[in-house]
Amino acid sequence: MGTPTNSVRTRVLAGLRGARDWQEDFYRDLHRHPELSHQERDTAAAVAERLGGFGYDVHEGIGGTGVVGILRNGDGPAVLLRADMDALPVREHTGLPYASTATATDAGGNRVPVMHACGHDVHVTCLLGAAALLAAAHDQWTGTVITLFQPAEEVGDGARGMLADGLATLVGRVDVALAQHVLPLPAGQVGTRPGPVLSTADSMRITVHGRGGHGSMPQATVDPVVLAAMIVIRLQTVVSREVAPTDSAVLTVGKIEAGTKSNIIGDRAVLELNLRTYSEQTRTRVLDAIRRIVTAECLASGSPMDPDFELFDHYPVTVNDPGVTGRVRAAFDDFFGDRSSELPVQAASEDFSDIPTALETPYCYWGIGGVDPDTYRTAVEAGRVSEDIPVNHSPTFAPVIQPTLDTGTQALTVAALAWLARR
Asked: Closest Cα partner for 140 from 272, 280, 10, 313?
């Protein structure tokens, strides 16, 4: 005989069969029509229309294109469920019948292809599904459900934008915040972990200055290309020699721009790098090392000016509250059985935690799989997971529709009911 919570869960999730058809259609349409960060107008409108139809009090235009749906259902905890909505400037190569062919003008004025290459279309669809199930079975739970559809996660400022636009006043007290992400793991699986689960991330733009001249007279110049090359080589020692072996960090130089022609030595080089860490102490140590190395290399090269440093696209570290995560994990283990496991620490980054941190709310963030289980098993057996399983942001990243949507919808609902279910 099941517990009262199990009985409530069974009744609420009974509506999943009825939601499945519209969810799958909604997902295909959303995947076919992705929108870049801060441009999620059609996505937001579709979300708001659905939430209104489910009976939620809908608030639009928060932080630009953010949408919040609130369903108050008597006394009890307030549970916030979040999904991100934006897509990426990636040209899709999945070959799917509902593949995106969309293009858009980005923030820099460039015309770019657009694709849901990170699974945010899955997140939106699953949260709408959970919102529908909870609304249809409101006699089974008590409290407040807050569904939050966030813009601009991919550029790291969507959560802060919603907060700056009065989110805290709108939602009031929140007892727990929950979010999930589809990952290149077998579909049907869920996993979370207490403590640090996603890294903090910082992007840095560094401009180093040289003295330009003719390629035939390098003695009259300070070559910024050589300077940039020396910086890149020296930066490779930061993680291996300045971060403890028991800690983790990733430092990547992803972009270098310098020069205009083969026989011209330019007067500057611009490097863009990305740093990921799991603690503020390590983050500070590595950022200090970057500045120290760049400044020293400029001095060694006789650079005529000090280098310029610009931090941008900052993401906070995601640290799951142990108590909240234990409660979510227990609910997942009970419902999903052996499909529930501990999620390995991820080097990816998110801005979700900006919201519960500002609201002073404990939170849990988990992952769900999106890869066909047989395909994943074959890749594991061949030792080719890295080669054969597309990862997030890949032009071939394409979560299988089922059981991914069912699992994501169930996970949000089961986690929410761990606080809301009548007992």
From this structure: 10
The reported pTM is 0.91
* 212-253 pLDDT tens trace: 999 999 999 999 999 999 999 999 999 999 999 999 899 999
Q: pLDDT at position 313, please? A: 84
- The DSSP result for 319-380, as a single string, is EE-HHHHHHHHHHHHHHHGGGEEEPPPBS---STTHHHHHHT--EEEEEEEEE-HHHHHHHH
In this structure, what token pair is assigned to residue 232?
A: 């890149």
381 is in an annotated binding site: no
Alpha helix (H) residue ranges in 253-302: 280-301
Q: CATH for 4-197+317-420, among 3.40.630.10, 3.10.25.10, 3.40.50.1820, 3.10.120.10?
A: 3.40.630.10
Ligand-binding annotation for 181, yes or no, is yes
Rounded CA separation 319/339 (Å): 23
Domain residues of the chain, as ranges?
A: 4-197+317-420, 200-315
Domains 4-197+317-420 and 200-315 share a fold: no
Residue 118 sits at φ, ψ, to 5 deg, of -125, 5
CA–CA distance, 342 with 247 (Å, rounded to integer):
20
- Report the sign of the C-alpha dihedral through residues 93, 94, 100, 101, in that order: positive
Q: Please give the sequence-ordered ranges of beta strands (E in DSSP) within 227-321, or none if there are none.
A: 249-258, 264-265, 268-277, 308-315, 318-320
pLDDT score of 3:
65
Taking each helix axis from N to C end, the angle separating 16-32 and 401-420, rounded to the nearest 10 degrees, works out to: 120
Asked if the model's pLDDT at residue 1 lies above 80, the reply is: no
> What is the CB-side half-sphere exposure of residue 387 using CA atoms within 13 A?
7
Residue-level pLDDT at 367: 98
Task: Consult the annotation and say whether 120 binds a ligand.
Answer: yes
Which pLDDT value is given to residue 193?
97
Q: CATH fold of 200-315, please?
A: Alpha-Beta Plaits (3.30.70)
To 5 degrees, how large is the angle CA 314–CA 317–CA 318? 130
Looking at residue 6, its pLDDT comes to: 86
Our CA dihedral for 185, 146, 132, 186, rounded to 10 degrees, sits at: 0
